[in-house]
Design brief:
The chain has helices spanning 17-30, 58-66, 102-124, 151-157, 172-182, 185-188, 207-217, 284-287, 301-310, 314-322, 332-336, 443-453, 465-483, 486-493; strands at 5-10, 35-38, 41-43, 47-49, 55-57, 78-84, 87-92, 95-101, 129-133, 161-166, 191-199, 221-226, 251-256, 261-262, 276-281, 292-295, 297-298, 327-330, 340-342, 353-355, 362-379, 393-406, 411-416, 419-424, 430-433. With 497 residues, the protein is of the alpha/beta class. The strands form five sheets. Strands 13, 15, 16, 18, 19, 20, 21, 22, 23, 24 and 25 form an eleven-stranded mixed beta sheet that branches. A six-stranded parallel beta sheet has the order 2-9-1-10-11-12, with helices on both faces. It has a four-stranded mixed beta sheet with strand order 3-6-7-8, with helices on one face. A hairpin with a 5-residue loop joins strand 24 and strand 25. Helix 1 runs parallel beside helix 2, helix 1 (17-30) packs across helix 13 and helix 5 runs parallel beside helix 7. The longest helix is centred in the N-terminal third of the chain and has 23 residues, at 102-124. The N and C termini lie close together (9 Å).
């Protein structure tokens, strides 16, 4: 082992690899190392745009922030964005190269392997060490051929591996033992330790099992990490966030849970305010009592609009708007608010056009070119709850392929680069934008709160997402320091174990 990298692999998806990588990166940063995250291939609809206008997975963005680095597309050279059953848009080095079936992508993997190696090597040269994240499980023996993200990646980087198991659903000992047993002998030699994650209870109950596990797999248990209710951005839609209510405030925000919801991390900032409750809505009943309804982004705008109608969500959204209550659309959700959506080139789906919700006087046409850019929006002088924010800036990023044509009843409220990005209706209660991250700074949320609560609105500023992330990174780093043998982790990184 070369002493430049450390890789976390898991017994399956959602065992907590992303968060543990972030915690290790923050610990190493605190200890004076310049470290970077890396994941060869990510599958997620939560993505981000770098300063260079390149698209990458949100998990590596979060990990880069934990390490104190600017997100760099070299940290995630391949991103798969599912567009439907067995098909994904493939993003390579930050640029979309097409939509492929699972089989077509599998056939392309050998060509990607050399690019991944070169990308990793270029990143590694810029830092003291790299913390690499695997995907799913390395024991998926049917996927071993063509692997570019688990043991094949460990071999490319000559990285030792720490195996992570999630105890929360049960069966963690069988999962860890079974994973190690299914590895090839040279792959098992790379596994230098295991971490049991998401434990609740008294660790003394686990100790007999820990000893038995070590005797069978011949590698040490480096630690048992307690369950952490982590509020960092989730990697993708495999999340418990949709089943949870966040916050306990007087204002209730209902985010419509679209079938292909993307970049729902836009709304995590909302729950940081003591005056806001955030929930996700799958049925009309979930919209009852909402003060604000938000339509989020999606990778399949027209199909998700049709699905929204099939679930009976369209009528209560329209009624909410007609009562003068706020409805906000972001990216794909913004497009749904218009009168008509047209997809003549089949850019997003096989449905050529659909009627929108009719809440904004505009039509949307999907084009083959996708705009990806970090952007700063300027709030324009207007009426309603945005009147107090005229001239204020909103930082964020754009990822969209739509071109809007506005009618006379659209009122511009947000400009990017001198051009209209966001519009609202004449009443000022229905508005949309292509700008992701518009709530992160807090000022837009405060304006909505003041509009809805009047004199009851709290004057105390809420945390920005950047401030909150920093607190969370330090918190999870301390939990991992307290529960994992970091001296052993550093020895593994240096190749001494």
């Amino acid at each position: 082992m070369r002493g430049k990298s450390l890789m976390l692999q898991g017994t399956g998806s959602s065992v907590g690899k992303s968060v543990l990588c972030a915690a290790l990166l923050r610990i190493m940063k605190q200890d004076g190392l310049r470290v970077a995250p890396f994941k060869a291939q990510n599958m997620a609809l939560n993505s981000y745009v770098t300063r260079e206008g390149l698209e990458m997975g949100r998990a590596q963005v979060m990990q880069a922030q934990a390490a104190g680095l600017e997100p760099d597309v070299r940290m995630n050279p391949v991103l798969l964005k599912p567009t439907g059953d067995r098909r994904s848009q493939v993003v390579v080095n930050g640029r979309a190269v097409g939509t492929m079936s699972a089989m077509a992508y599998h056939e392309r993997k050998p060509a990607l392997q050399q690019m991944i190696r070169q990308t990793y090597d270029a990143l590694e040269r810029t830092v003291d060490a790299v913390v690499i994240e695997g995907a799913g499980s390395p024991a998926e023996i049917n996927l071993r051929e063509g692997d570019i993200v688990n043991m094949a990646m460990a071999e490319m980087a000559d990285a030792p591996v720490i195996l992570v198991g999630d105890i929360n659903p049960g069966g963690v000992f069988a999962a860890l033992l079974g994973t190690v047993m299914l590895l090839e002998e040279h792959e098992r030699a790379r596994v230098k330790g295991v971490i049991i994650n998401k434990f609740r209870g008294d660790i003394r109950i686990l100790e007999p099992g820990l000893r038995m596990l070590e005797e069978r797999i011949h590698v040490p248990v480096l630690g048992v990490v307690p369950f952490m209710d982590v509020e960092l951005e989730d990697e993708d839609s495999v999340t418990s966030r949709f089943e949870q209510v966040r916050g306990r405030g007087e204002i209730t925000v209902a985010v419509v849970q679209l079938a292909h919801i993307s970049n729902f991390t836009d709304f995590q900032a909302l729950s940081l305010s003591s005056g806001v409750t955030v929930r996700y809505a799958r049925t009309p009943r979930d919209l009852e009592g909402a003060d604000v309804i938000i339509l989020p982004g999606t990778k399949n705008t027209i199909e998700d609009l049709l699905d929204l109608r099939s679930r009976g969500l369209d009528a209560p959204i329209v009624r909410h708007a007609q009562r003068g209550r706020p409805v906000i659309g972001v990216c794909g959700g913004y497009q749904m608010l218009g009168r008509r959506l047209c997809d003549p080139l089949g850019t997003e789906s096989g449905v050529p056009q659909a009627e929108g919700l009719g809440l904004l006087d505009m039509e949307v046409t999907f084009e083959s070119h996708k705009r990806t850019a970090q952007s700063v929006g300027t709030i324009l002088p207007t009426q309603g709850f945005l009147a107090t924010l005229a001239g204020a800036s909103l930082d964020g990023y754009e990822i969209h392929a739509g071109r809007n044509t506005y009618g006379p009843d659209c009122v511009p409220w947000l400009a990017i680069g001198g051009k209209t990005d966001g519009v609202m209706n004449r009443q000022g209660n229905v508005l949309g934008t292509y700008l992701h991250g518009l709530f992160d700074g807090g000022q837009l949320l405060r304006a909505i709160t003041a509009y809805l609560l009047g004199s009851r609105a709290e004057d105390a500023p809420c945390l920005t997402m950047e401030q909150f992330r920093e607190q969370e990174f330090d918190r999870i780093a301390q939990v991992v320091r307290d529960s994992v043998d970091m001296r052993a982790v550093y020895a593994i990184l240096r190749g001494e174990i």
